């Protein structure tokens, strides 16, 4: 079963929190909540796709007793990919809406 993560409140946008200075003086970006959410969704898509491939392989090799397991794994992989695509579309819509705002 998929773990559902709790959404944390928005953190303040301070320069000290968004970037860190390394020893060489170069700045690197720290992971953000937005990045963490999308990374976990991409990881979920990879995991469900791997589970689907394993179930199909086991079904083709005759090692799977219940063929419904392969169908369930395929549906989970399809739904996780669909959710990732919808989240990407919503994020792009929100970004384009923010770009249209005149200050």
How would you explain this protein's 3D organization?
- There is one protein chain.
- By secondary structure, the protein is mainly α.
- It is 64% helix and 6% strand.
- It has 3 helices and 2 strands, in the order H-E-E-H-H.
- A two-stranded antiparallel ribbon has the order 1-2.
- About 9% of the residues have low confidence.
Task: Write the topology of this structure.
Blueprint: H1 15-18, E1 19-21, E2 27-29, H2 33-61, H3 68-100
Antiparallel strand pairs: 1-2
Provide keyphrases for this structure.
103 residues, mainly alpha, 3 helices, 2 strands, 6% strand
Broad shape:
elongated
Helix content estimate: 55-70%
Q: What letter string, H or E per element, gives the SSE order?
A: HEEHH
- Secondary structure tally, helices: 3
CA distance, first residue to last residue: 45 Å
- With strands numbered from the N-terminus, the spatial order across the biggest sheet is 1-2
- The count of DSSP E runs of length 2 or more, i.e. the number of strands, is 2
Report on the biggest sheet.
2 strands, antiparallel
- Indicate the mean pLDDT: 82
Category by helix and strand content: mainly alpha
Compact overview of the structure:
64% of the residues lie in helices and 6% in strands. The chain is mainly α and 103 residues long. It has helices at 15-18, 33-61, 68-100; strands at 19-21, 27-29.
